[in-house]
Amino acid sequence: MTDIKAALRAQRIETPSWAYGNSGTRFKVFAQKGVPRDPYEKLADAAQVHAHTGIAPTVALHIPWDKVDDYADLARHARDLGVGIGAINSNVFQDDDYMLGSVTNPSARVRRKATDHLLECVDIMDATGSDTLKLWFSDGLNYPGQDDIRARQDRLADSLAEVYARLGDGQRFLLEYKLFEPAFYATDVPDWGTAYAHCVKLGPKAQVVVDTGHHAPGTNIEFIVAFLLREGKLGGFDFNSRFYADDDLMVGAADPFQLFRIMYEVVRGGGLEPETGVAFMLDQCHNIEPKIPGQIRSVMNVQEATAKALLVDREALAAAQAEGDVLGANAVFMDAFNTDVRPLLAELREEMGLAPDPMAAYAKSGYFEKIAAERVGGTQAGWGA
Ligand code: LRH
Ligand code: MN
Ligand code: MN
């Protein structure tokens, strides 16, 4: 139990700046009270999530949604609040120029612009002390024949190589794949195999990030996790839940069992060890629920799944597996999943000097009432209008 608690105490879950802003679907963005008006206030809200959970000390930025004049100053502000800047997320999907793609666009001018943005993101890493660049490309095709699928892979490889060469010591990039959307016929980085192949070619500073919402229904995500971790190419997660497509709902809400299976493979593959560099990030929007509690709940959901994964009796499991005891092995696995870990986590929080129930502690803190009164005209998360 001491080992389990130590592992849980050491786990770090990163929250995304965009979770704190207003968001919605393409039909409606619902404005909420007290929403941050700038990146500085987003960091203040993220600091609340860390204050109540004790395991969310970094915040991912999204450029240009979090554009500021002075990134070193933003990083200082984060430090003053007790948090740090996590992954820098690039954005090459919002300009008119990117209608036919960014780094894979048939136009050399647009490709240059997109790659320059990625390089600017590395500058921001330098200024903030962030060690991770997260790359997601909305590039793809809507119609067969629209562009040359293979040439687009060449263009992608060229851009990635340029960005890779710009990375400093201790910096890396994570390449994110997504099955479809916004392109509907073909996507240029549609799956982990494509991302993996590009990363292997580039070298150790390029790894794959698994966004749990970016797969076809029924995909065995834990297999992908096990495979990438074994190859040293699992850079981290963008956690969220999906029911249909890229729903960006709270992680562990739709399918806590899937999250447990994923976390078991992480534990099994040593991915909780900080040296492996596996980053546990949230990538979510809270369209209809309050944002700070939505993030607190999500952090707790990952933590609960991790605790259950750590509870799997690995020795008993290995013995049952070696004997070909199908039902016995499955029972060992399910015993861990069916354990109520909430008392264990409440105890751990008390040992860490935190309130045992972060949701209740936040509600009691008065922070929401304060921001609701102080902040007028909060910003949109960046998309969804
Ligand atoms: C793309 C994505 C990617 C983006 C984020 C806002 O669907 O998951 O990580 O940067 O959404
Ligand atoms: Mn993502
Ligand atoms: Mn997504």
Task: Domain count, please report it.
Answer: 1
Average pLDDT confidence is 97
- Backbone shape: globular
**Helical residue percent band:** 40-55%
Tell me the number of helical segments per DSSP (H or I, 4 or more residues long).
14
Give unreliable regions as ranges. Answer: none
Order of helices and strands: HEHEHEHEEHEEHEHEHEHHHHHH
CATH topology: TIM Barrel
Tell me how many strands there are.
10
Secondary-structure-derived class: alpha/beta
**CATH architect. name:** Alpha-Beta Barrel
User: What order do the strands of the largest sheet run in, or round the barrel if closed?
Assistant: 1-2-3-4-6-8-9-10
β-strand amount:
5-15%
CATH superfamily, please?
Divalent-metal-dependent TIM barrel enzymes
